[in-house]
Each structure stands twice: as structure tokens, then as C-alpha cells.
Amino acid sequence: MLTIATEQKGDVVVMTLEGRIDADFAKSFETACLERIDQGDRQLVMDFKGVNFISSAGLRVFLLIAKQLQPQGRRIKLAALNPALMDVFEISGFSKLFTIVPHVEDAL
Prior knowledge:
The protein is of the alpha/beta class. The chain is 38% helix and 35% strand.
């Protein structure tokens, strides 16, 4: 299961994720992110504090989000990845595509 809580902090939208970003929940996660992008949010911060797993389907959503935001000069930052998730992002090369910080406060 994946739950998403969204909070506006100034001009930044913080999406706090909890659970698994896998094939079962990737589509709903993608929809939630694209809705924020369509609303014109300029900067998204993903708080991974409660995420315990991400699959290739979840990584694909992040690639899609980055492709949507980059041409418009908008950004996404990832925060609070546990060591296992950080390994996934590093091994996949995604750590080079995204700004990854230890805490949400660092992303703001």
C-alpha cells in the first residue's frame, strides 16, 4: 500500500510518501504527481521517510515526472531515502538525475 500526504510550504509542494512504490501503486502515484504538475507547481519535494520499497515501475514514474518538469524549469527533490532505497537510486543511475538530500528541510 502507498499513501500520499501533500502539504504546501511556500512555493514548494511536499509529498510525504508511506509504504511501497511498486507496480500495484505506481499508477496512482503517477496520477497524483501529474495532477500537481498540471496545477503548475514549480517545485516538488518527495519525502521518502516512510517508503520501504521501490520497484522499477516506481522508478519509471520518477523518470516521467522529471521529463515533465525539466523543460519548464521546474524541479523535483527527493528527501530522506533509507540506505536500501539510496542503493536502488545509485545502482539505477537515478541519483544523477535527481537532487537527493537527507531531510525535507534540506530540500526547502
